[in-house]
Write a structure and sequence with these properties.
The complex is a heterodimer. Chain A is mostly beta strands. Chain A has four helices and 20 strands. Chain A is globular, with a radius of gyration of 20 Å. The termini of chain A are far apart. The chains are: A mainly beta, B mainly beta.
Chain lengths: 257, 14
C-alpha cells in the first residue's frame, strides 16, 4: 500500500513539466527514503534524477519498495487537472496495475480522483559516483534559462568556461558568435540573485544547447541553479526543491574531434 | 567538429 499526500500539490505539477520533455516513460520508485526517479533520454546523452524526500510529504506511507512505470505525458495530463492550490495524494495498492491521483481543493469542497494505468518499463539505472567537481557555479535559475534560450538562437552548442573571474557561455553559428560572461557577484540584496563560483581549477566544456534548454523547464521549481563541471564528467545541473529534494540533470559533453 | 559523447562513456549500469 502506497499513500503519499502533498499539500503543496503544485510542486508535483512543476516536477512533471520539468522532466516530461526529456523522458517519455519512466519508473517512479517509492521507498522509505522518498519518491524518486532516474531516467535517461532516448539517446542516452542526458539523465534526469528526481528525489522528493519522505519528510517533505504531510503523509507518507510506503509499506514496501514499489516501482511504478508511467508515461510522463499521461501523468502530466492528469496533474494538469489539479488546481494550483490543490492537495495531491498519490495512491497505489500492492500488485495493482494502476495508480490514483487524488486532488482536494484547499477548503475540501471539491475532491477528484484520477486513476491511471501503469506500464512495464525496462529501466536502466546508472551508478553515479559522488565526484569532486573542478568548478561549481550557482546562479539565478531565470538568468541561466535566459542565457540558454538566447544562445540557442545563434548556435547549437555552448562552451561553458569557468575561471576565478566568472563563467563564460559562448556559442557560434552561421550568422555569427556570442559570448555572455557572468561575473561572480556575492554582494546582492537577496542571496538568490547571487552568482557564486567555487573553483578548484579552470574548466571549459562544450554541450548541446538543446538539452540545456530542456533542463531549464525546471526553472519554476527553484530560484537558483547549480552547474557542476569537471573535464572528465557529465555536467550536473541541479534545481533544489525547497525542503524536499532536487531535480538533477546530467549531460554528457561534446568532445572536439 | 565535435562529437557528442554518451552517458555510458562515464557511468556504468548499476
Amino acid at each position: 500500500m502506497l499513500e503519499l499526500r502533498l499539500v503543496q500539490g503544485s510542486l508535483l505539477k512543476k516536477v512533471l513539466e520539468a522532466i516530461k520533455e526529456l523522458v517519455t516513460d519512466a519508473n517512479f520508485d517509492c521507498s522509505a527514503t522518498g519518491f524518486s526517479l532516474q531516467a535517461m533520454d532516448s539517446s542516452h546523452v542526458a539523465l534526469v534524477a528526481l528525489l522528493l524526500r519522505s519528510e517533505g510529504f504531510e503523509h507518507y506511507r510506503c509499506d514496501r519498495n514499489l516501482s511504478m512505470g508511467m508515461n510522463l505525458g499521461n501523468v502530466s495530463k492528469m496533474l494538469r487537472c489539479a488546481g494550483s492550490d490543490d492537495i495531491i495524494t498519490i495512491k497505489a495498492d500492492d500488485g495493482s496495475d494502476t495508480v490514483t491521483f487524488m486532488f482536494e481543493s484547499p477548503n475540501q469542497d471539491k475532491i477528484a480522483d484520477f486513476e491511471m494505468k501503469l506500464m512495464d518499463i525496462d529501466s536502466e539505472h546508472l551508478g553515479i559516483p559522488d565526484a569532486e567537481y573542478q568548478a561549481i557555479v550557482r546562479m539565478p535559475s531565470g538568468e541561466f534559462a535566459r542565457i540558454c534560450k538566447d544562445l540557442s538562437s545563434i548556435g547549437d552548442t555552448v562552451i561553458i568556461s569557468v575561471t576565478k573571474e566568472g563563467v563564460k557561455f559562448s556559442t557560434a553559428g552561421d550568422i555569427g558568435t556570442a559570448n555572455i560572461v557572468c561575473r561572480q557577484n556575492k554582494t546582492v540584496d537577496k542571496p538568490e540573485e547571487a552568482t557564486v563560483i567555487e573553483m578548484q581549477e579552470p574548466v571549459s566544456l562544450t554541450f548541446a544547447l538543446r538539452y540545456l534548454n530542456s533542463f531549464t523547464k525546471a526553472t519554476p521549481l527553484s530560484e537558483t541553479v547549480s552547474i557542476s563541471l569537471s573535464s572528465d564528467l557529465p555536467v550536473v545541473v541541479e534545481y533544489k526543491i525547497a525542503d524536499m529534494g532536487y531535480v538533477r540533470y546530467y549531460l554528457a559533453p561534446k568532445i572536439e574531434e | 567538429l565535435s562529437r557528442q559523447t554518451g552517458l555510458y562513456s562515464f557511468f556504468l549500469l548499476a
